[in-house]
Amino acid sequence: MNEGELFTGGEADRPDVQGMRPGSEQGGAGQAVRSRPQPTPGEVDTIGAQNLGFSPEEYLARIAAVRGRMSDQGLSALIVTDPANIYYLTGYNAWSFYTPQLLFVPSSGPLTLFLRDMDARGASHTSWLPPEDIVGYPERYVQRPHIHPFDWVAFALRQRWEVARASSSPVGVEMDSHFFSPRAFRALVNGVPEWRLVDSFELVNWIRAIKSADELALMHRAAEVTSAAMDAALGTVGQGVGQHEVAAAISAAQARGSGTSWGDYPAIVPLMPTGESADTPHLSWTDRTFAADESVSIELAGVHRRYHVPLARTAVVGRPKQELVRLEGVVAEALAAVLDVAAPGVPTAELARTWNRVLARGGLEKPSRLGYSIGIGYPPDWGERTISIRTEDDQILEAGMTFHLICGMWMNGYGYELSESILVTDTGVDTFTDFPRELIRL
């Protein structure tokens, strides 16, 4: 790709071209960037640096852990595009992930956040990064058919003298990130042919699996929002009430929060499969009204500072069907058995086997996984995309891990959902909320 394709405006619109050539005045500035040490969070005079979500030590420990795993995987650098991982490492938080953005993590030295130019100031407001490490790409690259923002980013990485020193070993890329498109990958392949781009295999996500004490404090506050949102849902469901009215009550409670625990936006909207449609998960809402003796499975999450605590319960308006009552008993027994066996040192597969044994005694089975790791979440998912609780996974539980156990039973023409968000402690597990584990009669 030639310079004319990269910069399509007139000469007055492209002062950055010369600066991207090593040896120019800005190239000299790039050498200074290369020689700078890793900045310390909280030491620059920006809004974000003065309002850190976590201590400087915690951010530095996260970066050190990432670089340790990079070394283990033989990576010279890491390209991070998952907004949850960018938030985890820098604190940057805005609804900007619908346009390409990436955090460049070299093996040493400063991290660099590349994002749309109009969002760069937002990074100074919410992240600890110094202004020189927040780089906005020009607006002319946004949603164009023949050029991509990462064309510009690849060239900018050269300007900052990052390309050559990351060429000795593979560069990791989050291949399964929701916001890393094939065009983005192609732009990097074409723009930095010296690099061998390889899958990082959710490197940062795995580090996020064990929560710090400060992270758990945020999740406990999120759980207060969860309880308020579920209370709002159950207080609104009723015969003749539209699903959209329940969704509105949930959304209001999710934003309002509880006490001093204000609510953040959830990665997933409220879900409420109803009646015969409850035989499948992940349905949202319409204006359909609830009928007498009809059940609804409500799945939602409370969120505080991007940390999610999901919860699901099933309610019935009137008298429940007998098959639903049967599911209620078996599922409650199976979940209790799982909570009893869960503890540090136990494989996740053992939790799944325990669940399956209780279901089998009741003549039931659940083909889908029982749960997954949770924490920071951005649309479209609040899971961490690492640990799953199923018989095929043998991850060992450790204190500080957090999971959503989703005991969903989707039958033929009806369904039942019961879930708990749990924390693995030093001796067992704790649940984040204390809603009764039963079919809720309204």
From TrEMBL:
Gene3D superfamilies assigned: Creatinase/methionine aminopeptidase superfamily, Creatinase/prolidase N-terminal domain
CDD domains registered for this protein in UniProt: APP_MetAP
One of its Pfam families is Creatinase_N
UniProt domain Creatinase N-terminal: residue ranges: 62-210
Please give the InterPro entries that the UniProt record associates with this protein: Creatin/AminoP/Spt16_N, Creatinase/aminopeptidase-like, Creatinase_N, Pept_M24, Peptidase_M24B
- Which residues lie within the region annotated Disordered? 1-49
In this chain the Peptidase M24 domain maps to 218-426
* PANTHER family in the record: AMINOPEPTIDASE (PTHR46112), XAA-PRO AMINOPEPTIDASE P-RELATED (PTHR46112:SF2)
Q: Give the protein name, as stated in the record.
A: Peptidase M24
Q: What organism is the protein native to?
A: Brevibacterium casei S18
